[in-house]
Amino acid sequence: MFTAYLIVAIVTIVLNAGAxxxxxxxxxxxxxxxxxxxxxxxxIVPLGxxxxxxxxxxxxxxxxxxxxGAAAAAGLVLFYIGAVLAHVRARIFRSMAIPGxxxxxxxxxxxxxxxxxx
Length: 118
Description:
With 118 residues, the protein is mostly helical. The chain is built from 5 helices and no strands. It has helices at 2-24, 28-36, 44-62, 68-90, 97-116. Helix 1 (2-24) packs antiparallel against helix 3 (44-62).
């Protein structure tokens, strides 16, 4: 079970760190997608910080900091629920696969982390 947790956590870390970097540099696709779902440009860096904090928390969780990995995964789950809801509210379904996939990864990391704690 730890191997599955490790693989999914690393994939989730890499994708969230990459998404955070894209937010920090205001990548064109980030600006386009955020405008499409009515997210103000001023929110992009703070949202990137949330993604980076989630990735950092998952890293610390991998290194054995008690409960931090689960808390980071739970935070990412909540974050991506909000992202999916923003896409639904704006009726922008063509790009919803990315936040939906990241939501699924964060949820799997959370469930595997909690399963290991037993």
